[in-house]
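<instruction>
Derive C-alpha coordinates from the sequence
<data>
Labelled lines for chain and fold
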Amino acid sequence: MEENKKNSVFVKEIAYQIGPLIKSKKAVLSFKGSLLIRHPAWVVPSFHRVWPKKFSEEMVSYQALHDIFAIMQDAGERVVVMDSHDLRNHPEKVVSAWCENMGIPARLDALTWERGMPEDWHTWAEWFKRTSESTGFIPTSAKSPPPLSEKLAKIVDANRPLYHALEAHKLQL
Protein backbone atom coordinates (compact mmCIF):
# COMPACT_ATOMS: atom_id res chain seq x y z
CA MET A 1 0.00 0.00 0.00
CA GLU A 2 2.79 2.46 0.90
CA GLU A 3 4.46 1.94 -2.47
CA ASN A 4 1.19 2.72 -4.25
CA LYS A 5 0.75 5.89 -2.22
CA LYS A 6 4.14 7.20 -3.35
CA ASN A 7 3.89 6.18 -6.98
CA SER A 8 0.22 6.57 -7.86
CA VAL A 9 -0.57 8.88 -10.72
CA PHE A 10 -4.09 9.27 -12.06
CA VAL A 11 -4.37 10.04 -15.75
CA LYS A 12 -7.75 10.73 -17.28
CA GLU A 13 -7.57 10.60 -21.02
CA ILE A 14 -9.83 10.00 -23.97
CA ALA A 15 -8.88 6.56 -25.27
CA TYR A 16 -8.38 7.56 -28.89
CA GLN A 17 -5.79 10.15 -27.82
CA ILE A 18 -3.50 7.44 -26.49
CA GLY A 19 -3.75 5.31 -29.62
CA PRO A 20 0.04 5.27 -30.26
CA LEU A 21 0.61 3.97 -26.71
CA ILE A 22 -1.60 0.96 -27.44
CA LYS A 23 0.87 -0.18 -30.11
CA SER A 24 3.38 -0.84 -27.33
CA LYS A 25 2.22 -3.60 -25.00
CA LYS A 26 5.14 -2.77 -22.71
CA ALA A 27 3.88 0.82 -22.35
CA VAL A 28 0.31 -0.30 -21.68
CA LEU A 29 1.50 -2.80 -19.09
CA SER A 30 3.53 -0.14 -17.28
CA PHE A 31 0.24 1.21 -15.90
CA LYS A 32 -2.27 -0.29 -13.50
CA GLY A 33 -5.40 -0.56 -15.59
CA SER A 34 -8.56 1.32 -14.88
CA LEU A 35 -11.22 2.28 -17.39
CA LEU A 36 -14.17 4.62 -17.03
CA ILE A 37 -16.88 3.68 -19.49
CA ARG A 38 -20.12 5.35 -20.51
CA HIS A 39 -22.79 3.99 -22.81
CA PRO A 40 -22.14 5.11 -26.41
CA ALA A 41 -25.74 6.36 -26.71
CA TRP A 42 -24.64 9.14 -24.30
CA VAL A 43 -21.00 9.55 -25.39
CA VAL A 44 -21.57 10.00 -29.12
CA PRO A 45 -24.15 12.81 -28.96
CA SER A 46 -22.18 14.49 -26.15
CA PHE A 47 -19.00 14.66 -28.25
CA HIS A 48 -20.99 15.77 -31.27
CA ARG A 49 -22.70 18.54 -29.28
CA VAL A 50 -19.47 19.88 -27.78
CA TRP A 51 -17.25 19.55 -30.87
CA PRO A 52 -19.53 19.40 -33.91
CA LYS A 53 -16.83 20.52 -36.37
CA LYS A 54 -14.05 18.34 -34.93
CA PHE A 55 -16.26 15.29 -34.32
CA SER A 56 -15.12 12.03 -35.89
CA GLU A 57 -16.09 8.39 -35.56
CA GLU A 58 -12.55 7.60 -34.39
CA MET A 59 -12.90 10.11 -31.56
CA VAL A 60 -15.74 8.15 -29.96
CA SER A 61 -14.63 4.64 -30.86
CA TYR A 62 -14.53 2.10 -28.06
CA GLN A 63 -11.89 0.09 -29.92
CA ALA A 64 -8.97 1.72 -28.06
CA LEU A 65 -10.59 1.03 -24.68
CA HIS A 66 -11.25 -2.55 -25.70
CA ASP A 67 -7.65 -2.95 -26.95
CA ILE A 68 -6.19 -1.63 -23.68
CA PHE A 69 -8.44 -3.97 -21.72
CA ALA A 70 -7.46 -6.97 -23.88
CA ILE A 71 -3.71 -6.28 -23.65
CA MET A 72 -3.85 -6.05 -19.88
CA GLN A 73 -6.16 -9.00 -19.41
CA ASP A 74 -4.09 -11.19 -21.76
CA ALA A 75 -1.04 -10.37 -19.61
CA GLY A 76 -2.92 -11.49 -16.49
CA GLU A 77 -3.37 -7.95 -15.19
CA ARG A 78 -6.58 -6.94 -13.45
CA VAL A 79 -8.38 -4.03 -15.09
CA VAL A 80 -10.78 -2.07 -12.89
CA VAL A 81 -13.77 -0.92 -14.95
CA MET A 82 -16.15 1.75 -13.69
CA ASP A 83 -19.34 2.79 -15.40
CA SER A 84 -20.07 6.52 -15.31
CA HIS A 85 -23.76 5.84 -14.64
CA ASP A 86 -22.82 3.96 -11.47
CA LEU A 87 -20.28 6.61 -10.50
CA ARG A 88 -22.81 9.42 -10.79
CA ASN A 89 -25.56 7.55 -8.96
CA HIS A 90 -23.42 5.89 -6.25
CA PRO A 91 -20.19 7.92 -6.05
CA GLU A 92 -19.17 6.83 -2.55
CA LYS A 93 -19.65 3.13 -3.29
CA VAL A 94 -17.91 3.30 -6.66
CA VAL A 95 -14.96 5.39 -5.49
CA SER A 96 -14.50 3.22 -2.39
CA ALA A 97 -14.57 0.03 -4.49
CA TRP A 98 -12.28 1.56 -7.12
CA CYS A 99 -9.73 2.67 -4.52
CA GLU A 100 -9.80 -0.73 -2.83
CA ASN A 101 -9.23 -2.47 -6.17
CA MET A 102 -6.44 -0.05 -7.11
CA GLY A 103 -4.75 -0.50 -3.73
CA ILE A 104 -4.94 3.14 -2.70
CA PRO A 105 -6.74 4.80 0.21
CA ALA A 106 -10.19 6.21 -0.54
CA ARG A 107 -10.42 10.00 -0.44
CA LEU A 108 -14.15 10.46 -0.08
CA ASP A 109 -13.60 14.19 0.50
CA ALA A 110 -12.82 14.32 -3.24
CA LEU A 111 -16.47 13.56 -4.02
CA THR A 112 -17.34 17.23 -3.45
CA TRP A 113 -15.64 20.37 -4.70
CA GLU A 114 -16.16 24.10 -4.84
CA ARG A 115 -18.16 25.48 -7.73
CA GLY A 116 -15.98 27.19 -10.31
CA MET A 117 -13.63 26.71 -13.25
CA PRO A 118 -10.07 25.98 -12.07
CA GLU A 119 -7.41 27.74 -14.13
CA ASP A 120 -6.07 24.51 -15.65
CA TRP A 121 -9.54 23.65 -17.01
CA HIS A 122 -9.89 26.77 -19.15
CA THR A 123 -8.34 25.14 -22.22
CA TRP A 124 -11.10 22.53 -22.15
CA ALA A 125 -13.85 24.70 -20.64
CA GLU A 126 -16.54 23.30 -22.94
CA TRP A 127 -15.90 19.83 -21.47
CA PHE A 128 -15.97 21.00 -17.85
CA LYS A 129 -18.92 23.41 -17.94
CA ARG A 130 -21.37 21.24 -15.99
CA THR A 131 -18.73 20.07 -13.51
CA SER A 132 -17.64 23.65 -12.86
CA GLU A 133 -21.25 24.58 -12.10
CA SER A 134 -21.68 21.71 -9.61
CA THR A 135 -20.32 20.86 -6.19
CA GLY A 136 -20.42 17.08 -6.54
CA PHE A 137 -21.64 14.20 -8.62
CA ILE A 138 -25.13 14.70 -10.00
CA PRO A 139 -27.20 11.52 -10.31
CA THR A 140 -28.23 10.63 -13.83
CA SER A 141 -31.82 11.17 -14.72
CA ALA A 142 -34.05 8.31 -15.79
CA LYS A 143 -34.61 9.89 -19.18
CA SER A 144 -33.54 8.23 -22.40
CA PRO A 145 -30.47 9.28 -24.36
CA PRO A 146 -31.04 12.14 -26.81
CA PRO A 147 -32.44 11.39 -30.26
CA LEU A 148 -29.75 10.58 -32.81
CA SER A 149 -29.30 11.32 -36.48
CA GLU A 150 -28.90 8.26 -38.70
CA LYS A 151 -25.13 8.89 -38.86
CA LEU A 152 -24.76 9.08 -35.07
CA ALA A 153 -27.05 6.08 -34.52
CA LYS A 154 -24.77 3.97 -36.76
CA ILE A 155 -21.74 5.03 -34.69
CA VAL A 156 -23.55 4.14 -31.46
CA ASP A 157 -24.58 0.75 -32.86
CA ALA A 158 -21.01 0.01 -34.02
CA ASN A 159 -19.66 0.67 -30.52
CA ARG A 160 -22.39 -1.01 -28.50
CA PRO A 161 -20.82 -4.54 -28.57
CA LEU A 162 -17.43 -3.20 -27.39
CA TYR A 163 -19.12 -1.22 -24.60
CA HIS A 164 -21.08 -4.28 -23.45
CA ALA A 165 -17.93 -6.42 -23.49
CA LEU A 166 -16.28 -3.90 -21.11
CA GLU A 167 -19.45 -3.43 -19.07
CA ALA A 168 -19.42 -7.15 -18.26
CA HIS A 169 -16.27 -6.46 -16.19
CA LYS A 170 -17.41 -3.35 -14.33
CA LEU A 171 -17.22 -3.02 -10.56
CA GLN A 172 -20.09 -4.77 -8.88
CA LEU A 173 -21.71 -2.69 -6.15
In short: The chain is about 45% helix and 5% strand. Confidence is low (pLDDT under 50) at residues 1-6. The CA atoms of residues 76 and 87 lie 26 Å apart.
